[in-house]
Amino acid sequence: MRLSVNLNKIALLRNARGNNYPSVEDFAYEAISLGVHGLTLHPRQDSRHATCNDAIELSSICKKNSLEFNLEGNPFSLPKDDFIGFYELCDITKPEQITLVPDSIDQITSDCGWSPGYEENKLKNFLTKIKHLDSRISLFINPEIESVEFAANLGLDRIEIYTGPFANSIQSTNIKEIKTTISLIITRARELGLGVNAGHDLNLQNLPHLIDCGEIDEVSIGHAIIIDALKYGFHDTIIKYINTITRN
Prior knowledge:
The protein is of the alpha/beta class. Helices cover 45% and strands 16% of the residues. α6 (145-153) runs parallel beside α8 (175-191). It is globular, with a radius of gyration of 17 Å. Keywords: Cytoplasm, Pyridoxine biosynthesis, Transferase.
């Protein structure tokens, strides 16, 4: 399992004061120095946190350090104000991985994934447009077998399992059921030749439960890392996450 650190929340803190402090780039370099496997950004049309310029800068930093840059976003997000458009941003940054997320403009966070048939024709057209980038394409899906089949039929490289329901179930009686579902999703994805990522509400407490479910290639974590950094510091927090995913 690999760790990709989402730096959106660093950008959110920076934007609260209207200057470049804290610097997204500085935290990117520190994360890289600590051994993370990749960096993630999810710019949105309203530029509430990460901006297109942030994505361009982090893409450059990752390339210089032979590290994966994972660009997340809605493939249908068009240019608006300072947002240059998701396709245009992909074309400029040429990220190692592009994760397609069906979030709306006013959605606070990516709290749902792709389901079979949703905007299928538009999605196929987008995939045709970005084929020349040679990026790995991952589809952020709801935790259901049907969505795995949908991703495979589109010819994608990976899925990212939306782990919100999993995270919410850790203290509930249906945790075994949710873990079984994720295990089945992982198994089916492997059968279909898909890589498997996971993300949303993952933290130090629930990661071991996720690891129990099967072989996952990569987790993308941002919010929990920043929350934990308030307690442990950014340096120690990153080390804790790396140790958690590598010792299991």
